[in-house]
Amino acid sequence: MGHKFAELAFTGAVKNIQSDQGSRNSHARMEVGDDYNYVLGPNEAQFIAARDSFYMATVSETGWPYVQHRGGPVGFVKILDDKTLGFADFRGIRQYVSMGNISQNDRVSLFFMDYPNKTRLKLLGRVQTLGASELDTQQKLSLGDRYKARVERGLLITVEAFDWNCPQHITPRFTSAEADYEVSSLQTTILELKAKLRAKNARN
Ligand SMILES: Cc1cc2nc3c(=O)[nH]c(=O)nc-3n(C[C@H](O)[C@H](O)[C@H](O)COP(=O)(O)O)c2cc1C
């Protein structure tokens, strides 16, 4: 069936619009041959392991899509094997919209952004919930003492398909740590230039 993300995302209605808009033929080429884009490779694993947040969409029992942010220290999303990723889910304001949706429909869409490098990865999967006490014993999702948050549960996602998107319209944004890194290298350069200027002035 070819590209697994296309197989899941290109529904009949989607294909009809592709046909109307004249893009169907090029997209249909993705749908032939051996299956691909459903097993995480080194690129996907490395990209996900470097993220400190992502967006997770669930589907409500009334058909509404719901998107929420999930965040933590870099690497809080763990790659458990080439079909499974998971993370510790923290306590929030206890509306439990995502959890309620997941209890009725295990489909999720995850969206990972790397703003500085203008790269994004979208992933479709099926989610399973682990109790907080199962985090350490069953899966290595626990963050230990290195992050202050109350873990309510673990979420395990079995990957069904993924796709990379182009960098178009992504404005680079930097975390304070990333900005500090850039600024510190500029500060080093300024100090070096100042020292050279002082030495030059002293010689004159
Ligand atoms: C003090 C506090 C206030 C929050 N306020 C909101 C809020 O007003 N709206 C919201 O969507 N999330 C808010 N959050 C974050 C959510 O509670 C958190 O992301 C939660 O996991 C979302 O669950 P959900 O995916 O079921 O929406 C808040 C978190 C905290 C700790």
Automatic annotation (TrEMBL):
Protein name as annotated: Pyridoxamine 5'-phosphate oxidase N-terminal domain-containing protein
Domain Pyridoxamine 5'-phosphate oxidase N-terminal residues, every copy: 45-151
Pfam families referenced in this protein's UniProt entry, alphabetically: PNPOx_N (PF01243)
